[in-house]
């Protein structure tokens, strides 16, 4: 989409009540006109957060983005040890991230770090929290891997065992006591290990929408395969119609689509039946209960994977692109 088309999307988004946008990717800094999109969002009254690897963020670029109305930045981190971080990322990016964090702090923007946690870094959680402190983060999101997309493809290499997760959870509690008020720690629960479905996206078509670089509008960033060719596009329809009327956004909205055990479950208004993308990825049917839920008839396969993780040998990572050296 052109920057003019993005500008129009931002204005339409504001009209339907959107208050915050995450400019994410891939890597949003690859767009040279990113500042124009930020300007459009900010002028429409939408809070803008840049979600970035930090690679490609230099002082002049950040200055332009801040001038355009950028309000906060979230940086992804993989590990506090540069070598381990680069092995997980498959790219030499640690120094660029460190530099980006310094620039964001110098610009006085709120800084969040997002660390996706898994078998190769859960035991290094202390270091990630300390990294957040030393880089001046306001918030560190400790996000246990959710297994779809590339994570599903890498599941054998990433899935932790229960004791590893228990150790990490305990460390988070200790850090929360120590850090009270200084830095926010968010723990995104490991749904496979806990056997508890997450209230994914706050419910399908409930509080959030994604517009992809080609204009495809989706109820969640991972829903491309699930929605398939039915996905509406902002080039063909107004965002208000997409949000309110389109089949894609209404398919799993509310509770009418639910089957048992969700339909009569007392948690259906809390977890909304779990994650539609995960139900689709693991069963081929997005209307089934999320198999991560211990009440799902499909949960046995998830439990067997977690039970086997302690004795399994972690495989090698499969990268999107061959690691750069
Ligand atoms: Fe798409 Fe959960 S990731 S609904």
Automatic annotation (TrEMBL):
Catalytic activity entry: [PQQ precursor protein] + S-adenosyl-L-methionine = E-Y cross-linked-[PQQ precursor protein] + 5'-deoxyadenosine + L-methionine + H(+)
Annotated Pfam families: Radical_SAM, SPASM
Enzyme class: oxidoreductase
Keyword Translocase: no
E.C. number: 1.21.98.4
Keywords: 4Fe-4S, Iron, Iron-sulfur, Metal-binding, Oxidoreductase, PQQ biosynthesis, S-adenosyl-L-methionine
Protein's job: Catalyzes the cross-linking of a glutamate residue and a tyrosine residue in the PqqA protein as part of the biosynthesis of pyrroloquinoline quinone (PQQ).
Protein name: PqqA peptide cyclase
Organism, scientific name: Streptomyces rectiviolaceus
Recorded name of the encoding gene: pqqE
């Amino acid at each position: 989409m052109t920057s003019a088309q993005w500008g129009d999307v931002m204005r339409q988004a504001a009209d339907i009540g959107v208050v915050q946008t995450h400019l994410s990717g891939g890597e949003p800094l690859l767009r040279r006109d990113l500042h124009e999109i930020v300007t459009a969002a900010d002028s429409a009254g939408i809070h803008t957060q840049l979600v970035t690897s930090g690679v490609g963020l230099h002082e002049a670029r950040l200055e332009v983005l801040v001038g355009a109305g950028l309000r906060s930045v979230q940086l992804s981190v993989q590990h506090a040890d540069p070598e381990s971080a680069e092995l997980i990322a498959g790219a030499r990016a640690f120094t660029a991230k460190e530099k980006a964090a310094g620039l964001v702090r110098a610009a006085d923007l709120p800084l969040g770090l997002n660390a996706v946690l898994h078998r190769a870094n859960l035991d290094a959680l202390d270091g990630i929290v300390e990294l957040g402190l030393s880089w001046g983060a306001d918030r560190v999101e400790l996000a246990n891997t959710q297994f779809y997309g590339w994570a599903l493809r890498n599941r054998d290499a990433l899935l932790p065992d229960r004791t590893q997760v228990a150790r990490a959870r305990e460390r988070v509690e200790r850090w929360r006591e120590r850090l009270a008020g200084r830095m926010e720690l968010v723990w995104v629960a490991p749904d496979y290990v806990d056997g508890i479905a997450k209230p994914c996206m706050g419910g399908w078509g409930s509080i959030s929408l994604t517009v992809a670089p080609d204009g495809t509008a989706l109820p969640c960033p991972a829903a491309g395969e699930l929605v398939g060719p039915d996905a509406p596009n902002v080039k063909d329809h107004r965002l208000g119609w997409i949000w309110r009327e389109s089949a894609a956004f209404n398919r799993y909205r509310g509770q009418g689509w639910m089957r048992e055990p969700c339909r009569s479950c007392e948690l259906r208004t809390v977890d909304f039946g779990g994650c539609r993308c995960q139900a689709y990825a693991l069963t081929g049917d997005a209307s089934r209960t999320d198999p991560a839920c211990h009440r799902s008839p499909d949960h046995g396969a998830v439990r067997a994977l977690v039970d086997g993780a302690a004795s399994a040998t972690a495989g090698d990572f499969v990268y999107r692109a061959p690691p750069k050296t």
